[in-house]
């Protein structure tokens, strides 16, 4: 799978809005993309760049967005992990995002780790399908996360620093800016 930068017109933001953030939205395709896309009520208010895989679904869903295509597959694929780690360095050297928001999976790990080391806020929304254990990508990124959102009390009980949200929860900028964990 190829990767590259596609330049689309930047979103028009109200220059008076003091709460507008630069977001980096990182996710795999499929359900991870759908989950992050469903948070549009949050991310649409901010300047953003996406990192995901080049599929017909992501291409159609992200028409008009700023996108960097990542290398796939990432499951048990060391060469693509290295490629995506290098890609994370390239993407994070640009105007640095204030917040990196991800729903997983493997493609997110190098972006979250490097982003945290460079001073970005890092947020991971675990899949609603994870009831008792975190996904591998969440476990790998956990030491580098400012906020971990989970959907189930059983999972929050195992990871007390996790924030419990419902499937219809609203991610508010104050929550992202206020966490220091």
Can you tell me about this structure?
The protein is an alpha/beta fold and 181 residues long. The chain has a single domain (20-178), classed as Glycogen Phosphorylase B (Rossmann fold), CATH 3.40.50. The protein is 34% helix and 19% strand. It has eight helices and eight strands; from the N terminus they run E-E-H-H-E-H-E-H-E-H-E-H-E-H-E-H. It has helices spanning 31-37, 40-43, 56-61, 78-93, 108-117, 136-141, 153-158, 173-178; strands spanning 5-6, 22-27, 47-52, 67-69, 99-104, 121-125, 147-150, 163-164. Strands 1-4-3-2-5-6-7-8 form an eight-stranded mixed β-sheet. It is globular.
Main sheet specs: 8 strands, mixed
Low-pLDDT ranges: 1-16
CATH class: Alpha Beta
User: What's the total count of β strands?
Assistant: 8
CATH architecture: 3-Layer(aba) Sandwich
- Tell me the Rg in angstroms: 15 Å
CATH level 3 topology: Rossmann fold
**Tally of DSSP helical segments:** 8
Share of helical residues: 25-40%
Shape label = globular
Please give the alpha-carbon distance between the first and last residues: 36 Å
How large is the share of residues in beta strands? 15-25%
Order of strands across the widest beta sheet? 1-4-3-2-5-6-7-8
CATH superfamily: Glycogen Phosphorylase B
Q: Average pLDDT value?
A: 85
**Number of separate structural domains:** 1
Give the ordered list of helices and strands. EEHHEHEHEHEHEHEH
Helical/strand content category: alpha/beta
């Amino acid at each position: 799978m190829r990767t590259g930068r596609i330049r689309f017109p930047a979103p028009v933001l109200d220059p008076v809005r003091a709460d507008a953030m630069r977001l980096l939205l990182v996710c795999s395709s499929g359900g991870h993309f759908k989950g992050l896309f469903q948070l549009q009520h949050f991310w649409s208010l901010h300047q953003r760049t996406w990192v995901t895989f080049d599929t017909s679904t992501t291409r159609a869903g992200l028409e008009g967005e700023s996108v960097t295509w990542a290398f796939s597959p990432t499951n048990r694929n060391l060469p693509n992990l290295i490629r995506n780690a290098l890609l994370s360095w390239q993407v994070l050297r640009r105007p640095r995002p204030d917040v990196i928001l991800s729903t997983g999976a493997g493609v997110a790990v190098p972006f979250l780790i490097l982003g945290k080391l460079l001073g970005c806020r890092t947020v991971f929304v675990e899949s609603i399908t994870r009831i008792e254990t975190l996904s591998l990508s969440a476990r790998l990124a956990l030491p580098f996360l400012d906020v971990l959102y989970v959907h189930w009390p059983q999972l929050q009980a195992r990871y007390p620093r996790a924030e419990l949200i419902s499937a219809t929860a609203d991610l508010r900028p104050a929550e992202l800016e206020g966490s220091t964990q």
